[in-house]
Amino acid sequence: MPTDELSGPSVLELLRHGEVEVLGRIPWGSNATLLATVSADGDCLQAVYKPRRGERPLWDFPSGLDRREVAAYELSQALGWGIVPETVLREDLPYGVGSLQRFVPFAADEHYFTLYDEGVQLDALRTICCFDLVSNQTDRKSGHCLLGDDGRIWAVDNGLAFHTDDKLRTVIWDFGGEPIPDHLRDDLARFASHGIPHALTTLLDPDECHALVARAQRVSKVGIYPIEGSDRRYPWPLV
User: Fold this and answer.
1) Dist. CA 206–CA 66, nearest whole Å
2) What percentage of the chain exceeds 70 in pLDDT?
3) I need a surface site. Which of 4, 43, 58, 86 has the fewest CB within 10 A?
4) From residue 202, how far is each of 67, 71, 77, 135, 196 by CA, in Å?
5) In sequence order, what DSSP letters do the residues of the chain get, joined into one string?
6) Is the pLDDT of residue 12 over 90?
7) Distance CA 180, CA 184 (A)
């Protein structure tokens, strides 16, 4: 069965337990990023596999960016926003432990800058912007916002996030000074009041969980997208 006929729980089940075959390397990105097929009992989908052993060491993030990829999915689900494709952590993969994320077929010539200029689904882009504030996204390039063939905008490449220090770097500054929509603020307030879901406590350390809740509370209360007047907060390359 193709992936577009599978429900969310079925996709997760397949990602967690299906047989994985690596097809090749996806050329962009500084860390190893592999395209794979995942299959079981006649169901099949494509997935992006990021093996931990393929990570380039960073001075400010510990090894295990794959856990943060999964944490981004779990946060998106906990908030009810559904902007990160299904992502799981597995140890029994061809090149060892890593994250496995459903591959989203997308329009290759579209990214944040083109989508914003075209006025395409600005509310979805506002949601990703708010998500990055809360998750403390450190590398939101324009190409990490995908216009899927399903018509939805997805946020991918979320591994550099959830640091306890303020490390926000993103290309999404066009909403600066605007009020954050009430429904996003309400979701953040609910998340903060309910506490960290168990799925996130297994992926982030206690200090990171505490900082996540604090950011959710702050963004909900401030209620305004921040303004950045310098290039210090932009990632490189931009796309």
Assistant:
1) 18
2) 97
3) 4
4) 9, 9, 15, 16, 10
5) --GGGS-HHHHHHHHHHSEEEEEEE-SSSSS--EEEEEEETTEEEEEEEEEGGGPPP-SSS-S-HHHHHHHHHHHHHHHT---S--EEEESSSTTSSEEEEE---B-TT--HHHHHHHT-SHHHHHHHHHHHHHHT-S-B-GGGEEEBTTS-EEE----S---SS----BS--TTTTSBPPHHHHHHHHHHHHH---HHHHTTS-HHHHHHHHHHHHHHHHH-B-----SSTT--SS--
6) yes
7) 7
Half-sphere exposure (CA, 13 Å, Cβ side) for 214? Answer: 12
Q: Which residue has the tokens 């193709």?
A: 2
pLDDT tier at 120 (50, 70, 90 boundaries)?
Answer: confident
Q: What is the pLDDT of residues 158-213, one digit of tens each?
A: 999 999 999 999 999 999 999 999 999 999 999 999 989 999 999 999 999 999 99
Give the chain's length: 239
User: Quick check: bond before 181 cis, omega within 30?
Assistant: no
**Cα separation, 45 vs 48, whole angstroms:** 10
Q: Which amino acid is at 120?
A: V
Q: Is 104 left (phi over 0), alpha (psi -120 to 50) or beta?
A: beta
Bridge partners of residue 106, in order along the sequence: 148
In which residue are the tokens 């996003």 written?
Answer: 184
Tokens of 107: 């329009």
In this prediction, residue 231 carries a pLDDT of 79
